[in-house]
């Protein structure tokens, strides 16, 4: 009978996962895990640092309504809260709304039909023109302690000039008394805005020069329904 010789045995580390092969694999695995941990930790630290350096970009949830009735009907806040916010917005409007020397200057920023003689709002504004109060913005909850702000119409022409042809036909939206912009998409709704928009108010009225209103501002995104995302803060009023 012819005998078949057995196959030669594997030598050294090549035999069935020898010690050399296993050690190398373990080192690669540990090195990969260490790199991943460093990357994750670095990303977390960067996010924490950015958040600490720029608190103005923290978002606040606010409510924007065109009328008192819309606020009450939506029932996101109680009727008493809506009435108090609307009353506060009207008082702030009369005391701090921007003033323009001519109706043409006012309409250039706030659009046709977006302005009214100052004396119709307050005797202190006689001889000037004011934007109409088109809406008001309030906090989603009392705990936020957000100031109520009147909102003014923002001319579509100015919106197109700043943003380019891509927004042609889009409404001009709203602006705050401190120059923050709210691009309106339709309907009373919740909106997420940077703290710099939600918490910055105008303490005194300003007389606006031509081209001075929100000249460096960027639109703040507004969404109907479930809420939108904010995109920036206007640079405030020009003029003295």
Structure description:
The chain is globular. A hairpin with a 5-residue loop joins strand 6 (174-175) and strand 7. It has two domains: 17-52; 59-198, no CATH class. It has six helices and eight strands, in the order H-E-H-H-H-E-E-E-E-H-E-E-E-H. The protein has 240 residues and is an alpha+beta fold.
Key phrases:
240 residues; alpha+beta; 2 domains; six-stranded antiparallel sheet
Layout of helices and strands:
Layout: H1 19-53, E1 59-65, H2 68-74, H3 79-96, H4 103-110, E2 115-117, E3 129-131, E4 135-139, E5 149-153, H5 156-163, E6 174-175, E7 181-182, E8 189-194, H6 195-198
Antiparallel strand pairs: 1-4, 1-8, 2-3, 4-5, 5-6, 6-7
Helix pairs in contact: 2-3
Low-pLDDT regions: 37-42, 44-51, 163-170, 215-240
Q: Report strand order across the widest sheet.
A: 7-6-5-4-1-8
Mean pLDDT over all positions: 71
Question: Residue share in helices?
Answer: 25-40%
Q: End-to-end span in angstroms?
A: 114 Å
- Beta-strand level of the residues, as a percent range? 5-15%
Number of strands: 8
Sheet with most strands: 6 strands, antiparallel
Please tally the helical runs, counting DSSP H or I stretches of 4 or more residues: 6
